[in-house]
Each structure stands twice: as C-alpha cells, then as structure tokens.
Amino acid sequence: MSHYKTTLADEAATQALGKCLAHALTPGMSIFLHGDLGAGKTALTRAMIHAAGHSGNVKSPTYTLAEPYQVMLKGQAVTIMHFDLYRMISADEFAEAGFREEFNDSNICVVEWPEKADGVLPEPDLNVFLRVAGDGREVELHALSAKGIACLASLKFAPNL
C-alpha cells in the first residue's frame, strides 16, 4: 500500500493516528508533514514521540529548528529528530546547521514545513498531508520508498472509534 486517506474527527483521533504510526516506524525513516498552521502537525508528532516511549515534554522546535528524542523501538535505541522549519529563512540554514547528517540509517526524522528546505532535504519515505475539515482533519499519507510502503502496510489504525 502506498497511499492512505482518512478523516480524523478530533484531536483524540489525531493522537490515535500518531500512536499507531509510532508502532509502524523503522530506523532510517524520514516523514515530512505538510499542512497549514493549526492543521495538527505538531500534535501528530507529539503523539508519535510519546507512543514511541518518550515520557517527557515534547515541545515544538519552532525556535530551535530541531529537537532530539531518545526512544526504544522494537528493542532498539533510536533517536527521533523532530524538525520544525517554519521560521527558517532559507534552505541554506538547514544545510549550514549540519542537520542533513541526521538523515541516516539510525535516526527517524520528522520534518514540519519541509518546503522551507526544498532542494536541501533528502526525499522522504512518507509524506503526511493534514487539512482542517470542520472540527476535524483530513489526513493523507503517501509512501515514497520501500520503508514508507512497509510503514503503511503495518499501520493498524481505525479512525474515530
């Protein structure tokens, strides 16, 4: 499966999707989150990181651009790098900060506002598009690699139950 689309009725459904995604992640994955302000990108990421085992605060890295979180996935220590590129002025900032090195076989990189670093970021394994729809959200997941396809194939999510 390379495409998944559903409607999330509320923030609890967004959190449930994040939790299910956490269980489908593998080291080396990169996930790009697309959507307007308030579409739920940070809420989805926060739920994913907590479900992966991080018990502390998960803050939006709007000002720091990146926050690392150490978790255990399937018995393996993994770093989830959460990037928020909203305040980045140019793609060169991303390259100059050395962030591209974080995209490797060991880390999982989750990037909000990836369009701010077009031409510098590697291709994602999974693109997630979030749109406000009434009180809820529409979400589309597009797998762009074998890792992304495997993630969607193992995703066990029943929305809005």
UniProtKB/TrEMBL annotation:
GO BP field: tRNA threonylcarbamoyladenosine modification
Superkingdom of origin organism: Bacteria
Family matches, as InterPro entries: P-loop_NTPase, T6A_TsaE
Gene3D superfamilies: P-loop containing nucleotide triphosphate hydrolases
Chief localization: cytoplasm
Keyword Cytoplasm on entry: yes
Any GO molecular function: ATP binding
Cellular component GO terms, alphabetical: cytoplasm
Record keywords, A-Z: ATP-binding, Cytoplasm, Magnesium, Metal-binding, Nucleotide-binding, tRNA processing
Location of this chain's protein in the cell: Cytoplasm
NCBIfam families reported for this sequence: T6A_YjeE (TIGR00150)
Family: Belongs to the TsaE family.
PANTHER family reported for this sequence: TRNA THREONYLCARBAMOYLADENOSINE BIOSYNTHESIS PROTEIN TSAE
Protein's recorded name: tRNA threonylcarbamoyladenosine biosynthesis protein TsaE
Organism: Undibacterium pigrum
